[in-house]
Amino acid sequence: MLLALTLTSCGSGEKNVVSGNQTGYLHYGNGAEPQGIDPHLVTGVPESHIVRALFEGLTVKNPITLEPEPGVAERWEISPDGTVYTFFINPRAKWSNGEQITASDYVWSWERALHPETGSLYAYMLFPVVNAEKFASGTIDDFAEVGIKSLDAGTLRVTLNAPTPYFLQLMDHYSTFAVHPETVLKFGGMNDRFTSWTRVGNIVSNGAFTLKEWSLNRQIKVEKNPHYWDRSSVTLEGVYFYPTENVVSEERMFRSEQLHVTQGVPLGKIPSYRAVENSPYVQAPYLGTYYYLINTKKPPVDDVRVRKALSYAIDREKLTRTVLRDTAIPAYSITPPDTLGYNPPKLFSFDPEQARALLAEAGYPEGQNWPGLEITYNTNDDHRKIAVAVQQMWKDELGIDVSITNQEWKVYLNTVSQGEFQVARRGWIGDYVDANNFLDLFLANGGNNNTGYANAEFDDIILNQAPKAASREERYKLFYQAETMMMREMPIIPFYTYTSKRLVHPSVTGIYPNLMDSLNLKYVRLDPTQRLDLIPE
Amino acid sequence: MSHSPVEVADDEIEASSLWRDARLRLQKNHLAVIGAAALTIMILAVSLAPWISPYEYDAQNLDLGATAPSAAHWFGTDIFGRDLLTQILYGGRISLAVGFIATAVALLIGVSWGSVAGYCGGRIDAAMMRFVDVLYALPFMIFIILLMVVFGRNIILLFLAIGAVEWLTMARIMRTQVQSLKQKEFVEAATSTGLSPLVILYRHIIPNAVGPMIVYTTLTIPSVMLLEAFLSFLGLGIQPPATSWGLLISYGAETMEEYPWLLIFPGAALTLTLFSLNFLGDGLRDALDVRGSKD
Amino acid sequence: MLKFILLRVIQAIPVVLAVITVTFFLVRAAPGGPFDSEKAVLPEVKKALEAQYKLDEPLTDQYLGYLADLADGDLGPSFKYPGRSVNEILASGLPVTAELGFYALCFALFIGVFAGVLAALRPNTRQDYMPMGMAMIGICMPSFLLGPILILVFGIYLEWLPISGWGDLPGDKILPAITLGSAYAAYIARLSRAGMLEILSQDYIRTARAKGASDLRVVFKHALRGGLIPVIAFLGPAFAGLLAGSFVVETIFQIPGLGRFYVQAAFNRDYTMILGTTVFLSVLIVIFNLVSDVLAAWMDPRLRTQFSAAK
Fold first, then answer.
1. Which residues of A touch B66 (CB under 8 A)?
2. Higher local confidence (pLDDT), A98 or B214
3. DSSP code of A504?
4. Residue ranges in chain C modelled with pLDDT below 70
5. A501 φ/ψ angles, rounded to the nearest 5 degrees
6. Beta carbons of C144 and B229 less than 8 Å apart
7. Is residue C7 within 8 angstroms of chain B, CB to CB?
8. Taking a C-beta distance cutoff of 8 angstroms, is the pair C83, A196 a contact?
9. How many alpha carbons lie under 13 Å from residue C171 in its C-beta half-sphere?
10. Chains adjacent to C (≥3 CB pairs closer than 8 angstroms)
């Protein structure tokens, strides 16, 4: 019987990493099974990796400096006042069926991305463009009024509402990528969601790789694109993406050399990986902040003193050291440090005495009369660990009882958007490297605000003054001012700045840790002589 | 067994000798005795938890983190520095409570349903048992998962959901028992005195069906506990900060390579308790000489 | 016999219908919709999405629409994996779960019957206690405890067997099959022991033994057929249990089967996926129960008359 089982399990028996190094295939642990690969419809990180392997934008981020480099556009011109961008499309940039990429492909694609019926959740990335927002909300319905024009087949002109320093970065975000109009239309209308145009055999893309295979929940295979304009730079033959939702299993796959790269690392294993010479463990700051939202409309947290007390009573250093194994950086504000040179204000630190004083002032000396508080978080082990630790810290330092409740993802999202919480866990990852991305969360009618924080002066700085700033210095000064104003009210409790953590096999070079955790497969190389050498446990 | 010329109801004579014989047989079954003893110890331990362990079950010691068993912590600590022995004791309270209460729910529904069906016979019986057969065929796990997802995880719902799955077997057993008891003379006697069916059921029939009831109750409790553990493992059962053996096992499984004691001790606790219950149940079944559906 | 089968099939239809209806309305009652997302959604966009999936129609219309599609065999598009129909996802997961279940069942039958027969041949001796003791362990150790322990021992310490995936590495189907099947091996062992004991105590067996028939002959020629009836009857519920068990085993071993899809779908509020899986599995269970009952009847002539006499 056992023999039968063994025989029926097919497979070459050779480890993926070993065979991959010889044939030039990267085996990449990609997290969850992707929902799709239509650049205008997907929103998750696993999806983005595949989309970026298959498609390319006007600009590409250099994985080390994060500065924009030529992609589909070989060069560009920016008008002196910063509102008009002219992109010149590389004449060698082709679709995977050999056709030339044209400017009108971009016009068509952006219409698709902005059209309300398409339902792109990232439509707002293009809102800096004139009339884009109006088109997306249906206020105007003639796309010709939107600030994008094809001057000729190879020239694209984009007009913005105001100078937007990070606009070139946006061109590297997959929601602004172009898709091949004829292919999309062959399988449905412009706005039809998730038609079969993205299936193997149907899809036409313009990136370094093309889609070769998609076995649901097993693997996705992409192979080198012979029509890609920069194909000489690509050394990989192809990539296998695996759905590795469970970090524990993923780590085991890595250890048995079935994966070159993982998406994450179980916290408990990090110390042993760190201790290895030539460690495969790679940790780098990641543009994101982990925090708790506070519903400033609900008692007892409608009192700013209570909010401050709660925040001051948390020992972030201890938390990141013990529960998070030093894989995070304590944060005291919403914007991550060194966001393209911008550093956020730090208005407080761990101060239990001050916390107790504030709490007493607010009417709950040593936790008396405390009506109770509930932390809501989405079901996830790491969130639970932090919530449990925080619950204990508040009890020890402030003498208050706090309950924690977890909900699954969908329910949690609903709860947060309906405002049915007092304190809720949140994480925000930046879409582009600029403080604006974090600060505009707290605009009065920001869809992602959820805290009830509204300050007209804050809105004015972010919406009016900062875009018009004469220099980056001045702009950052304004941001600093706004952020200070906001954190004085403590509408959130910041915890830590994310780090990206993954395991990378020694045979892989070219996966550069960067703030956006942006992967550019063009730079990846495999060296068959390197094997994994872990100190035996 | 002496026969008195006075008319004694059959059941009284049967009952006393039945119970006495049963007890004797049970005592001879070593496994069952060990099981009963172990179970008692377990129940005592979890009830007396505060006196056994000096720690609070949720007292964290973040700097300590997870440590192997030692003199200070007999079962070691978890990643928050919480004492594992304490966690197992308090978790045991919940697991055992769920086991007993949900079984009680199943018992209530199953006994009522089955005895009514068995007593009424005919069409009503057929209809009621057809209902049971139909439910038996359904993928219950799917419904439970759905229920827990839809209505959120609260412990009352857990009891009801689990109880609702387990009552079917109980109903079948009861029905068979009642059917055969119905034929007995003492029931005819009771009916002829004009007692209402309900009274007959509750006062005469059900007490005589107690034997199988006890056996299957003892065997249902472990099923229920397994079910709770299973749901907690999937994240749908008991929620933190409360803890149960199932939850402890699922946490332990994640870190079993680095901290194997976090898996082994809760696993042992659950397995031992289930062993005890099963051995006891088997012993009771042999002692009371009860078979399955006697059809 | 044919009449019996037909009757059961007809009886099954309202059951399945009830299952569909209950599931449909239950799922819609859940908080959190399939399109809730972390980024704030423009109201126009949300409206467009709901219109596309017909979520803006009154509930009863949606229900009837679903039934109509169902009659065509169309289970609808998945909400979580748009662009893929539920049929497609089921088709990808079913062979995997079926294979896993099959191996687990084979394991359970093989080990279980062997142990049970062995025990029944020499009751109350060590030959009885050993297998029955093991059986007890199988029953008392849940799959999510046994699985990790097997992984720890065979996968990590000894490194004999792979511990995740399905069909990627040789031998990666062994541990999952054993984990899933062990509880059923245990039940089958007990059932076959009980069944065999009853048969073995019959007169005709004693006659055969008196004539000098060896154990093997006694078992295979005479006893097995009758003794296994309780096991056959158990197959129906066992099947349902295996399906349920696959949820956990597939999660532990990262197997891309139906069980895992279902649990994820429930968490993701993937309405169509939940409904589709529930319907599909219910139908499957009904069929399997029917088959097992028919098999049992075929093997035991006594039951046959009972069935044809049933109304």
1. 268
2. A98
3. B
4. 1, 30-42, 215, 217-219, 221-222, 297, 299-311
5. -130, 130
6. yes
7. no
8. yes
9. 10
10. A, B
